[in-house]
Amino acid sequence: MAVDEVSSRTDFMRVLLDRRILIASGVPGVYGRGAAFDDVIARVQALIDVLSRRHGAERVSFPPVIPRAVVRRTGYMENFPQLCGSVHAFVGNDDKHPALMDRVREGGDWSEFVSQTDVVLAPAACYPLYPSLTGQLPEGGRLFDLCSFCFRHEPSEDPARMQSFQIRENVRAGSPDDVQRWRARWMEDGKELLASLGLPLKLDTASDPFFGRGGRLMKANQHAQELKFELLVPIWSEAQPTAVASFNYHQEHFGHVFEIRTATGECAHTACIGFGLERVAIALFKQHGLEPERWPAEVRTRLWP
Amino acid sequence: MAVDEVSSRTDFMRVLLDRRILIASGVPGVYGRGAAFDDVIARVQALIDVLSRRHGAERVSFPPVIPRAVVRRTGYMENFPQLCGSVHAFVGNDDKHPALMDRVREGGDWSEFVSQTDVVLAPAACYPLYPSLTGQLPEGGRLFDLCSFCFRHEPSEDPARMQSFQIRENVRAGSPDDVQRWRARWMEDGKELLASLGLPLKLDTASDPFFGRGGRLMKANQHAQELKFELLVPIWSEAQPTAVASFNYHQEHFGHVFEIRTATGECAHTACIGFGLERVAIALFKQHGLEPERWPAEVRTRLWP
Asked: What is the CATH number of the domain that holds B272?
């Protein structure tokens, strides 16, 4: 990224914080949100509500922590160990408490005093859904609509790359055909939705940040098989635009791990589509300015009908 | 708790899961939520919205992870080390990845491969707010309205004692008088709100689960000074009712730690009030039955006006 792009990003972040659109926490990528920011997100969610209902999705929700077994069984910890947040807690007694307190008061790392719990932070909204689908799907498969706070350990000064952020997802489980046609339709719907908010967009194939040397092949495979598409907005840079939505075809991956079968008994295929809600909001503030009451009339009418 | 109370709780949980009002994750206290459960929570939130606006609270929100420095500086880690969830992540390279993977595949504890990050799970919605208030408050102080997913590491089979759950809070910072009068008014408002939903209630002084032998004095002090009140509903048992809302006066605690001053330059006092949203929803399902469309007319009119 060119120097002037980084500097424009830094300036923009400063203004977001000055106006309390976002609230600094002292940790990069972890921000409080003022009423204006949350209102934009709520209005974008309302537009996604309409699309999700049109597709016939069933609403469910999950907390921001999920069983550790899910990241283990799905290979998430294998493929993205650098992003996964594991949750650890003190299970000691009075005898160990004073030593822990000394460490805490020094401001030091208290790892050695805590034990791993049964949960990790959700890396995406859909992960906890798949284990609940074990068994046979009804004729035509199933569709779900869900949203949760996700965590990825990638501290960054880029306000569009938060560590803790909300992904609004829809998920489809069924036959390969049903799942792929559904994803294709959502790519159109998602593009239309965000274009109607005045965001300049590009749809492109993409890959996930698989870890290490071994990850290169996985990334190449994702691109080659068009398993992942992203909607990109040039928030800071035309050359390195930011993904604000993704459309992911998992093939048999989750169906195999969690033994999800179609109505005809085959291993179910799954796909998910997701909107990075904070990224969409930041793209809107960057594109249209810091005062939503001054955004273009057609965007305002869409968001606040 | 008597045997028949535990058995009634277990039976009720089974029904909640059978009807997919809640969705089991395999970890006690971590549940997905069906549309009916989330709808009840959304409607209770709408009623709290009205009260929060009447009190003049400003809306803000924070993610479910907060800076580790906040639990260190506020003494949370000192007083409740058993409840706090610390977040740890793998920061190694390709060399360490295979050993981590072996551990993960065995299903073992992967603590030794991860390092402590700068964040912990939020133990209450209000914790990340206080550091953002450093400095001088305006005349009359400030009021905030916020909600977030909180985490407390206390695995339990009681559906009303989740590990990951939402607290809707209001927070007041200002002079001791302002803060105490505000809390007293919210105790009335909160009681009236929940009573209007047909819940049998009792308001009582309470204490937080301070850790270990040293915690006893803290608990006794909280009771004696009436720093904490709770609204209790006999969900499973008259003898051990469940707290569904709490009203907490922190005196100078947060003002001192984060250097928050009143308009006249004194150390600000703070108080917070919080509704345990999942507990309120479970109390309603237990009190009125599993089908909200059959709840008493006056409760339905209040929730779905």
From this structure: 3.30.930.10
Is residue A8 very low, low, confident or very high in pLDDT (cuts 50, 70, 90)?
A: confident
**C-alpha span between B228 and B247 (Å, rounded):** 6
- B38 and A59 within 8 Å at the Cβ level: the answer is yes
CB atoms A85 and B82 under 8 Å: no
B115–A116 C-beta distance less than 8 A? no
Show which of B116, B136, B167 is a domain's final residue: B116
Give the amino acid at B183.
R
Give the range of the structural domain holding residue A108, as residue numbers without chain letter. Answer: 88-116
A197 CA: distance to closest CA in chain B (Å):
24
B29 and B175 together in one domain: yes
What is the average per-residue pLDDT within B33-45?
A: 98
Please tell me the predicted confidence (pLDDT) of residue A213. 84
Chain A closest-CA separation from residue B255 CA (Å): 17
CA–CA min distance A147, chain B (Å): 11
Number of residues written out for chain A: 305
Same domain for B93 and B217: no
Residues B139, B241: Cα–Cα separation, whole Å: 40
- The answer to whether the CB of B88 falls within 8 A of the CB of B115 is yes
Q: Do residues A46 and A166 share a domain? A: yes
Residue A161 sits in the same domain as residue A61: yes
The two tokens of residue A40 are 């934009």
Residue A3 predicted with pLDDT over 80: no
Kindly determine whether residue A81 and residue B97, on different chains, have CB atoms separated by under 8 Å: yes
Element (H, E) at B260: strand B260-261
> How long is chain B?
305
Assign A2 a pLDDT band (cuts: 50, 70, 90): low
Contact residues on chain A for B57, CB-CB shorter than 8 A: none
What total number of domains does chain B contain? 2
Say what the pLDDT of residue B212 is.
Answer: 85
